[in-house]
Amino acid sequence: MKDLMRYAAELEGSGGGSLPPVHKWNPEFCGDINLVIKRDGTWFYEGTPIGRARLVRLFSTVLKREGDDFFLVTPVEKLGITVEDAPFVAVLMRAEKTGKAQKLAFTTNVGEEILAGQDHGIVFRKDPETGEGAPYITVRARLEARIARAVFYDLVELGETHKIDGEEQFGVWSDGVFFPFSPAGEVFKRA
């Protein structure tokens, strides 16, 4: 944890806006820490919410997923953490244009903006609490954001029908990709 805190301080001091290359880092596992990302996107350390948004943002940049496990990593340290659902929540959506030319940009609870499209797909999965279909968007490197309910309602407002494999489906376009609102558990098909 000491190396992680030192690395976070270095990142904070650098003022750089780009993401570190965590996909290239494979340090040895150092153990688990008592850090939990709750379903609502709140980060807790040893049972206490982390109140500094800037620190949460910094930690989010060194978050890595391997299989079903999540880690905070630096070039020399890898610490296991707990994620209750998805590590991020999409709390805002901005739509530009309409139809096939439409672009949907989502902003996460840590301020990262994602344009839904080929590399940032939208999927539905069963919500672990309600059992209903819940939408998610890929943020980066197998990390996802659950789309907040209010944002999902806005997404539905932009929906339209499109034929896929001869069948009319309801969904949305973004960056040239159609994402149908599939039944819970199914991944959106791409047109």
Give a concise summary:
The protein is 16% helix and 43% strand. It has 191 residues and is of the alpha+beta class.
Layout of helices and strands, plus pairs?
Blueprint: H1 2-14, E1 29-37, E2 43-45, E3 48-49, H2 53-61, E4 63-66, E5 69-73, E6 78-83, E7 88-96, E8 103-108, E9 113-115, E10 122-126, E11 133-140, E12 143-147, H3 149-157, E13 160-164, E14 167-174, E15 177-180
Parallel strand pairs: 1-6, 7-12
Antiparallel strand pairs: 1-2, 2-3, 4-5, 5-6, 7-8, 8-9, 10-11, 11-12, 13-14, 14-15
Please supply descriptive tags for the structure shown above.
191 residues, alpha+beta, duf1285 like fold, duf1285 protein fold, 2 domains, 6-stranded mixed sheet, 3 helices, 15 strands, elongated, disordered C terminus
For the biggest sheet, the summary is: 6 strands, mixed
| Rg | 18 Å
Q: What is the chains' assembly state?
A: single chain
**Helicity, in percent?**
10-25%
In CATH terms, the superfamily of the largest domain is duf1285 protein
